[in-house]
Amino acid sequence: MKLSDLRPRFRFTFFQRQFLSHLLLSMLILVLLAAGFTYYMKQQTFNNETEELTSVSKGIVRLFAKEGEDPTSALQAYRNLLAERRTSFILLDQAGEIAYRDPKMPGALRTKAFLDELRSHMSNTKENESFIVERGAEEPWVVVYRQTKLKPQKNELHLFIFSPLHGIQETMDTLNQALIYMIVVIFVLAVAVSWLFSRSMSASILSLRRTTRQIAAGDYAARSTVHRSDELGELAGDFNSMAQQLELALHKLQQFETRRRHFIMDVTHELRTPLTSIRGIIEGLKNDLVHSPEERANYYGIIEKETFRLIRLINGLLDMEKIESGLITLNKKRTPLKELFEIVHESLEVLIEEKRLHILIECEPDLQVYADYDRLMQILINLVKNSIQFTAYGTIRLTGSETETHTVIVIADTGRGMSQEELALIWERFYKADPSRSKSNSETGLGLSIVKQLVEAHAGTIEADSTPGIGTSFTIALPKTDQAASKDDEAG
User: Fold this and answer.
1) Parallel, antiparallel, or unpaired for β 368-372 and 358-362?
2) Which residue, 349, 371, 368, is CA-closest to 358?
3) What distance lies between CA 334 and its chain's CA centroid?
4) 358 in Cβ contact with 345 (< 8 Å)
């Protein structure tokens, strides 16, 4: 065991990550807004105080301009208003000496340190500009500077109007207290909203995780119940599509496995029958149970017949495997269809005469079919042999025609026909509509299945129509040109 395995591991869940990230982001925005708002309000309050002191300075300047050297009596009424606002003023001459001072100016402002601080602003402060003085006073003061003249004098005087910063501080304290209450309320709301939002995201992910576990456990019918309009909803939709494809693939695999088992059973049955027959005859011949030459010849004929049947079965299985695996190569070319019909007639003439049947060929001499010659012959022979097998008397008709895009081949007989249930099964491997007759004729039940796959390999279609007691017809439609090549040409 590794040392790292013994260490406790903290599981930082997706919900916790989302919750903390949203909460921290909300708090960061809130702190920045609070700081900005506080700074703005402080500056606004300071500016308002500056404007008020500037207005006071204008009033004082007007009084000085009217009253001349002794403005005390004129300032008395105005001074009461200033006292209520805790506002004072002082006039300094060019040398920095006191030219006039508010009689009610607080004693704390009469110190040399305070006056020196005012004198330092005489040369570098602009008209109506404000500043804060903390030196020489018990509390900070807001000061507004202005230049003026007394009526009988021509020298410039420096007027300083000041008010304690205490009023601004009280305003800011009240504002900060209200801001703290607002921050607490917003914090609670941020926690609630972050929790709800993170819980929604986490619930969606947990739903996907549960569905994933169900599919991993083999339940391919499981689907996610997440319905969202964001990327997570799209992920859930893609996940459900994937699960659906997996379910379809599993269903196909199950069908394939079922067909494989049936195929093995059918092949085993088909092989066992001729092999058992051959084995029984050989044992009889080996143990001298057959004495007459005629019986021996008959049994040898049965062995030969069953051997041919085994060869046909194996060849049929090999053909089907090649077709399904895509290993067959079709050498397509144009061939007169009527010529193919006539060759089929000649090849099966013995079987036709045996059953006293008639073959009618209805096809224009110049009608051509685009197909692999050998494979098309295999298709036609299998279909005609099937008609011969199930037709006791009557006619087998071979018809050729064409449409704008396809060559159409119809093989119709007047045989016993098939029901709709039988018609639905004729393309299955080893299916035999009449097992007793197929056994006597050494049929394998692979012919029609091979025919269908060969037609589809030609990109064609085959359909069967049958009526019990009247007959059966097979209709084949083969393209006049190679469809894949035609599509490539159109795309080019």
Assistant:
1) unpaired
2) 349
3) 48
4) no
For residue 109, which of 132, 135, 85 has the smallest C-alpha distance?
135
The pLDDT, as a whole number, for residue 154 is: 63
What does the alpha-carbon distance between residue 340 and residue 469 come to, in Å, rounded to a whole number?
A: 29
pLDDT digits 0-9 by tens, 165-218: 766 667 777 777 887 888 788 788 878 877 777 777 777 777 878 888 888 887
The total number of residues shown for the chain amounts to 492
What's the pLDDT at 477?
93
CA 67 to chain centre: 87
Write the CB contacts of 207 (distance below 8 Å, at least 6 apart in sequence): 224, 225, 226, 236
Q: Which two tokens stand for residue 150?
A: 């007394």
What interhelical angle do 72-84 and 14-67 show, nearest 10?
Answer: 160
Question: What is the C-alpha to C-alpha distance for residues 105 and 109, in angstroms, rounded to an integer?
Answer: 7
Three-state DSSP class for 145?
Answer: strand
C-alpha span between 454 and 380 (Å, rounded): 11
Contact assessment for residue 162 and residue 142, using Cβ atoms and an 8 Å cutoff: yes
Distances in Å between the alpha carbon of 200 and those of 207, 239, 256?
Answer: 11, 19, 42
Query: H or E segment at 44?
Result: helix 14-67
Residue of 437, 388, 433 whose CA lies nearest to 414: 388
- What count of other Cβ atoms lies within 10 Å of the Cβ of residue 280? 12
* Three-state secondary structure call for residue 123: coil
Residue 181, classified by CB atoms within 10 Å of its CB into exposed (0-12), middle (13-18) or buried (19+), is exposed
Cut 0.85: pTM above it: no
Q: Strands 395-402, 358-362: parallel, antiparallel or unpaired by DSSP?
A: parallel
Across all residues in the chain, what is the average pLDDT? Answer: 77
Residue 95: count of CB within 10 angstroms of its CB: 9
Residue 130 near residue 160 (C-beta atoms within 8 A)? no
Outline where 217-328 has alpha helix (H): 231-286, 293-325
Report strand pairing: 368-372 vs 406-413. unpaired
